[in-house]
Amino acid sequence: MAKLQDLARLVEGHVVGDGSVEVCRVAPIDTARSGDLTFLSNPKYRSQLTVTEATAVIVPPGIEVDGKTTLVCANPYLAFAKILTHLQGPQFPEIGVSSQAHVADSVCCGDSVSIHPGCVVGENVIIGDGTVLLPGVVIYDNVRIGKNCILHANAVVREGSRLGDRVILQPSAVIGSDGFGFAPDGSSYYKIPQVGIVVLEDDVEIGSCACIDRAALGETRIARGTKLDNMVHIAHNVQIGEDTVITAQVGIAGSSKVGNHCTFGGQSAVAGHVTMGDNITIGGKGGVTNNLKTEDAPQVLSGFPAINHREWLKAAMTFGHLPEMRKKINQLEKTLAQLQLEIEEK
Fold this sequence. Notes:
alpha/beta, eleven-stranded mixed sheet, ten-stranded parallel sheet, 38 strands
């Protein structure tokens, strides 16, 4: 439970109505009940404000709700996220080091670290204050993990990898798996040892079953604040900038560089040794095959190979007409050939 006036301070908003009312949870606008807080971020749902049973509503400036207390914020969606974290965010009680975990004697743990049953932590690992390893996490030798990280069940962090503060690994994420490097040897291939590391900077989140390959030499690095969705593959020696968002099933091939504030739609991809600038969005299933420079305005690209999104939409609208267009072109070619024949005969 929390008073609305306290939540307003949390999100830098202000209350219109009774700030002393208490709410216990955040709920969708159409299912909220008394004691709930809901939010309006999209104007098309404004009509539902007249029927919602929520005790209070988070709204943008300029929106009034008859008979309801409102929490006015410039960014209601962000306010919703912060309040949801405050009221209902996951909690992991401190349990210390479980007797059912295997932790090497050389491990250095900070204060309030929790290591759950089934975890395996190798030699010379450093774990920062407040970090939580949930059941089944495996940490190889010489790994460094920062403060207040959460490593969910069955996540794996291989040797030498470095995680900053507040890093989150969702279940079965793999950090530091071998890069896909093989030298041709006649009709077979010789495996190239991958002796580099992976660095995840502060506030990075890695989704379930995502794989971040270690560098062949040097490091694979994901910069501060970047978020990866489930089943993303980042190959060896890739460098990804700050606050980039990569959605499900994206693949970024080896030694490519991605700038800051980029966004990747589902199943998009980047070829190897490509450099992308800042503020570039790649639409779903888009493919980047050439270097992309930073422009004055953010870029949105789609298709394969990726081109300007509006141009791609025009091209996509044409695809369905191609059989008919081909038929007409064939007819025109026949007509033209007949006309040329008649001219030659004259």
